Every structure is written in C-alpha cells, then in structure tokens.
Amino acid sequence: MDQSLACLVSRLHLAVCLSLAVFALLTAPIDAAQTVANSGTPQRAKDKASPDIVVEGVLDGHYPIRVQNNLGSGFDTVTSRQAASDAKFFSQCVKGDDNKALQELIDGQPNREGRAAALDWIIRGHKACYPGYTEHFSMINVHSYGDCNPRVSIAQPQASPICQSMYDRGALIEKVLATYAADIQINTDDLFRSEVIARFKRREDKFDRTRSRQERVYVKVVSCLVARNPSVALAYERSPAGSENETKLGRSLIGTASECVGRAQQVRVDPSQFRIYLGDAIYSWILALRGVDSPVPVR
To answer: What is the pLDDT of residue 275?
Structure first.
C-alpha cells in the first residue's frame, strides 16, 4: 500500500461506556500514532455512538478476520435497525427545496447548532412523513428533532438510548450519494493521489475539532476501510440495507482489512450504524476526489 495513504490501527477495543483506543492518525503521509482515552458524555447532537466495533480473538476460516453483525448484550440491534428504517422512509420525502438545510446538515461542522437546526428544520417541514412526529416533543427545546432525539429500546430497556438524529442524517447522506454520485466509481489509485489525500485530510481535520473522541476513532477506522477497498465500500453502500449482499460485502470489507481494525481476529458491528459511518466516509472521499465542498446545489 502507498505510504501516503497507509492507515495503521494498532489496537481498537471499544467498550459500552468508556473506550481506550490506540490508533494511527490518517495523515498524508501517516507516520505517527496517538493514544486516546475516550471518556465523558456526548453533548449537543454528539451522536451517541454505540460500541459498534468490539475486538475479540477468534479466527474465521474464510477471512483473516471474523465479522459478526451482533454487538451482544447492552445493545438492541432490532431498535437500531428500526431507527434506520424509519430514517430511510423519512429521507424519501426530502426534495430539492430543502437543499440549503441539507447542505448545512451534511457539510456543516459536527456537533454544532447549525447542523442540529438544519435537521430539525427539515423534519418539521416534512412532519407528515416523519415516523413518530409529535408537536409536544417538538416544543421541548428549539431543535428537539435535530439534537439527539433519543430512542429507547423496548426489548432491552437497560440498553443505552440511541440518537435517532444520527440515523436521520445517515439516511440523508445516502440519499445525496444516490442523487449526486450514483454512477461514480472509485479505485485506490484515485485516492492515493496526493491532492486528493490533502483535500480529504483538510476536511476531516476540520471536523475532528468538534467530534467526540469516540467519533474520531470510528471515523478513522471506516475511512481506512474505504481507502483500502473503495469499490467494495461503494457496493456495500449501494446494497439494500439488511440484505444478504450487504452482509457478504461487509464481511469482505472488514474481513481482509486487519490494518484498519488493529489486526483484531474478530470484529462485531451493528450493520445499521456501520452503514452510517461508512456512507459518511465515502461521501468525504468523493468530495476530496472531485475537489468540491459539497455536491448539493443551493438555489
């Protein structure tokens, strides 16, 4: 692999509440590692990223890494899947008239009021097709639906709530990719170009300033996966959620990328959350490849 895009992760072990990760920074070139102790509680719209990569030590007979679509106890995969399904349904309502808010939501700084306000505005403008919309909740605070918008598991009430806003934004990124980058194909040679790496790093460095520590770990892992095998990443993002093809592509994408997951022998993921982070990374690489700040036209 080209030294300018090597993404080495030395160890990744994400626990339910606190995480400790040692990972190499995605730079151009990458030549330093950083140890991060994840702690604290997410604040405004800091998507409550569940522990969607858990490192264990079991070998798989097909791929060097065994990939399981199950996070185990403490996380409700069914609720996560329903959150993703609801977000997908809602995203179909969003049209071109929403482009200004859509651009702020997708390209605005993470965990800042502008992003929360944009999502809340889009949801309020399409309340008729937003599952579970209530006027009462919308009046709790100024950006009720754009902040976390917590979703509690009925099957596992002991599980931590998940943020519906993360799924809503993820579904809208998927819609933007389908609308403005439906035919794009990417190979590793495209991403190894120094100017592409520089543009990607510039955007991600800016976003990292307001991401939580845990979010930065997730983003670096999936960015590495996309850079290592962009064609499989694109095929995964374009496959139907929950399909057999999605499962196979996910195993292929993660199962051979030991350098991206700390050379772990087993990786557990929640497919719904993994899809969100992967789509975000694909989007960022496409912007870097095209040399644009956003593909969304604003009238």
So the answer is: 96
Closest alpha carbon to 28 in 288, 294, 295, 291 = 288
Task: State yes or no: pLDDT of 155 exceeds 90.
Answer: no
With a CB cutoff of 8 Å and minimum separation 6, the contacts of 147 are 44, 45, 116, 120, 141, 165
Residues ≥6 apart with Cβ < 8 Å to 2? 188, 192
Residue with tokens 């996560």: 80
pLDDT at residue 146 greater than cutoff 70: yes
- Lookup: tokens for 164: 């519906």
Which pLDDT belongs to residue 63? 79
Spatial separation of the C-alpha atoms in residues 15 and 36, rounded to whole Å: 14
Confidence of residue 224 (pLDDT cuts 50, 70, 90): very high
Q: How confident is the model at residue 169 (pLDDT cuts 50, 70, 90)?
A: very high
Residue with tokens 């596992």: 156
Per-residue confidence (pLDDT) for residue 17, from 0 to 100: 20
